[in-house]
From TrEMBL:
This is non-specific serine/threonine protein kinase. Keywords: ATP-binding, Kinase, Nucleotide-binding, Serine/threonine-protein kinase, Transferase. InterPro entries: KA1/Ssp2_C, KA1_dom. Pfam families: KA1. It comes from Amphibalanus amphitrite. Residues 46-95 form the KA1 domain. It catalyses: L-threonyl-[protein] + ATP = O-phospho-L-threonyl-[protein] + ADP + H(+); L-seryl-[protein] + ATP = O-phospho-L-seryl-[protein] + ADP + H(+). The lineage of its organism: Eukaryota, Metazoa, Ecdysozoa, Arthropoda, Crustacea. CDD domains: MELK_C. The gene is melk_2.
Amino acid sequence: MTKMLNVSATGATDPDQVLIDLQRELWSRGIVLKQKGYTLRGKVADPLGKAKMSFELEVCMIQSLNMVGIRRKRLEGDAWCYKRICEQVLRLAGQQTAV
């Protein structure tokens, strides 16, 4: 059984669309992303280019709900910055549910 900690349900059933929406949202906020499969690694830098915070988001299926989820993980850096990113992800997840 997969751990469901730090997973936000989106209400969507198409993981590809959720991934595209996540990329668009994060890029619009100037977050540098690397993608491997359904996992996005993001990095937020200060004006000097030093990493302020890095995180990982994985688009996954929540089998019990038959919908797409977003698993969140802070890799390093500022916890408050990570909190703001998570709030944006949760807001996006809420928009997916409303659609």
